[in-house]
Please model this.
Amino acid sequence: MHNRRRLSLALAGLGLATAAMMPAAAATLRVHLNADIRGINPGINRDDNTDAVMLHVVEGLVAYGEDSEVKPLLAEKVEVSPDGLSYTFTLRKGLKFHNGADVTSADMVWSWNHYMNAKADWRCLSEFDGRGRVKVETVTAPDPATVVFKLDKPSSLFLANLARTDCAMTAILHKDSLKPDGSFDKPIGTGPYKFAEWKRGEFVRLTRNEAYASLPGAPDGYTGGKRPLVDEIRFMVIPDGATAKAALLRGDVDVIPDVANAEVKELKKDQRIGLSITPNMGLVGILLQTRDPLLGNVKLRQAIAAAIDTEELVAQVTDGLGKRNNSIVPSMSSYYGPVQAKGYTYDLAAARKLLQEAGYKGEPLVMIANKRYPQSFDAAVVSQQMLQAAGINVQIEVLEWATQLDRYTKGNYQLQAFPYSARLDPALSFESMTGPKATQPRKVWDTPESQALLDKSMVVSDKAERQKLFDELHQRFIADVPMVMLYNGIDAGAYGKRVKGYKSSILSKPRLWEVTVAD
Model:
């Protein structure tokens, strides 16, 4: 409870937004997308690219800062009741939607009801409707500037879940985002840029929000200073990395947010290009389907882990930029400690012995991969070679990303090389893969013990207690091997020298506010 009180004070202490004076905007900022977005309905039918675009358009009450802490965005302050069941948000003054309407607490209530409609298929519905760890019993607007959420039980992760980027930060939308018949039209939000046009397979165009009231100061994750400093952002869909790189060098693209690690050394030598490189809190690994007739045998899964030299694999895949991390707790997290540093032991003799004990007789195993995320695909290729050297018959099936994502969601695979977007609390990292497969087939790890530990970590606020829970979860995860965790992601962003202010983020998405581009 003390942690909750401190959070409330920290949120309140950052003060009100100011309608900052903005320099005159100029030109169009052209940004690479390696695949088209899935839709324009925030938090619904989404993937990481979709989130990256939509989070320039919409905003929520709170957001993650660059230090992975939850901080105010549209809320001026948050007060938590002593019993942890009531969260009272006070809206900042002067907020407006893209259509010019004032933002009020009633808009948050309307937006919440929109998300909680099961037909909307919001990504995070199960986190708040009682199927997850908490149920939001009511959301009310006692006055135009106040929103009150009442929960059925305390949750140390309520604000963290509201701020999740894959939830579209639980954005406040204007009701005119829907058509009169209730179907979605376009996102009318409060962000620094407005949605303008989506030409499928080609580009998404956003335009400057002239009325945007930015928080003061420098950018801070998805909060802080967020002034829109260009007239237009054009996200350009270019699936082939070599083509995108050539466009950057010609000046036809201004920013590539995710450059392949192998390209970094070459681009560093090019005077026309700037680079921004940072580790992020995403997870890259090999998922193992524990309900598969073969992989249901824990000894076969342990053999796979022992056969992969994860340190060598990461060195190859990241071109020396990354570091091995076999823990679901990201290495940048304050919860990453000596326990998390103990991972798999590469041991071919042990792997072969485990294969014998598992009764494995060379049956083929199929690993799904995609070329949209080059490092993930490379991890599949390198791990295949290592597994085959141990006598494990693994073949790679390359799919389009949308098809792989569908197979992942349905649990329809044996193995797959898979990247998870950043979750900034370890409980959320574990939650992304822990849960009942019967009702959520996308979950990777399904044991009563892991579920009980995870549930407790989502209620307990004391950091020392949470550390013990995450330590035990890590040890069980390593022993059970529902996934061979390899490393945390690396964001290597490249940009033309006429671009100023662009920085890669641990949040692993491009942020294009406070960025300028010369004519």
In short: Residues 224 and 309 are 41 Å apart (CA to CA). Confidence is low (pLDDT under 50) at residues 1-6, 8-20.
